[in-house]
């Protein structure tokens, strides 16, 4: 059977950008910028984009296009002993798919709440108490009851991913991204246009962009810049390998990778203007300093911004539009995460798309029920910390070591240059072999040390060891077992 | 907004969206050439 293909180059680029542009662009990037020198942060950030983000994206597009398969088969083609790394990456995607969808479910609920600002004046106690039902008794290991109010939005989010992945690359993923991505950009531009002229908004934007150049000599700022680039691009966990494996034979690689990364980083900046504009207006309206209202992550999206929405003119329109933007950004990323797992299953086990999609989305839905319990947020927080800071960075590092040091990287360079509209030179080899590997080694070492030294989030030791490290251990054992079984099978 | 903030905003948006526009131009030119 011939492999599915993208229907057009635009479809592929929009899907790749849709994968990279996610919740993190909206709720993580603006805060990281603000925390690390404001506008001055763009110097290390753009440097990291050029020396790590773009080279890694070119590598993933090249490998996916050359071997035309998902992560396990691609990495096995590089070296049979490393098939496990492909499975490990697929498992990272599977775990992320199960909790990421819960945040989309929250955003869907808030999209509805925003019409009447159901969160009232105290958005903090509404989100944690009324909405999530979180109590002081809950912990990652004491989840409490299922929150039935989240079942419908969770089902809607999974249904969107199921329909897209079930209908295939051209008929599902490409079509949905061709609708969602232009809409997302238009939504963000509209929100910026409405927010930027409100009193205090420009002060908020100024807080984000005003450069503090003394910070660029701080190694932590550079580490934050590279960390942000690795987190934002969907590289190193099977997604871009899977998407690139559906590229037609004669496809550009280098220019597509440049466009994907540049648009993703550009979108982050637009999201920053939107978020800080709203925060600036909120600080102005409340008569407080911006430093008192600024936040990131779940707190920014579901506590701070709802308060800001209360103060906006026409909150019944602006509120739903903001949460709709979150839903669009989340769904396009979730589809790509699920597709990474589905491609792995289809390529390795010979399943058809319908079987793989149905099995994964059903199992994923059941597992994600764990995260819509009273203590689900705490479990999500702990799992996300270990997946992002340890498993993902480790998988990125090993993939780069494998491609850059154990394989002939010049072969991949030739493959990428053969069909591309412009060529990449020796700088690309240097960035993959030295810059990206070196930075990832430092980041991973620091993260592992940090995870052992401090009790992340104040969680109990047994939760950190059994849930955090235990999950990574189980993923490793499973991946290595599949690799061993594959090698035994091929010997027979 | 301060001048520094405006300059950094132009640099950030210019390099990313400007870069993407240049790449798009290259892609369109190559399509025309085929």
Automatic annotation (TrEMBL), chain A:
Chain ranges passing through the membrane: 12-30, 42-63, 84-115, 150-169, 181-202, 222-246, 258-283, 321-346, 358-380, 386-406, 427-452, 464-485
Q: Which domain of life is it from?
A: Bacteria
Q: Does the keyword Transport apply?
A: yes
- How is the protein disposed in the membrane? Multi-pass membrane protein
The protein's predominant localisation is membrane
Give a yes or no for keyword Phosphoprotein in this entry: no
Q: Where in the cell is it found?
A: Membrane
Q: What PROSITE patterns does this protein's entry cite?
A: NA_NEUROTRAN_SYMP_1 (PS00610), NA_NEUROTRAN_SYMP_3 (PS50267)
Q: Which UniProt keywords apply?
A: Membrane, Symport, Transmembrane, Transmembrane helix, Transport
- Similarity comment: family membership: Belongs to the sodium:neurotransmitter symporter (SNF) (TC 2.A.22) family.
* Protein name, entry field: Transporter
Organism, by scientific name, is: Zobellella aerophila
Query: Which taxonomic lineage is given here?
Result: Bacteria, Pseudomonadati, Pseudomonadota, Gammaproteobacteria, Aeromonadales
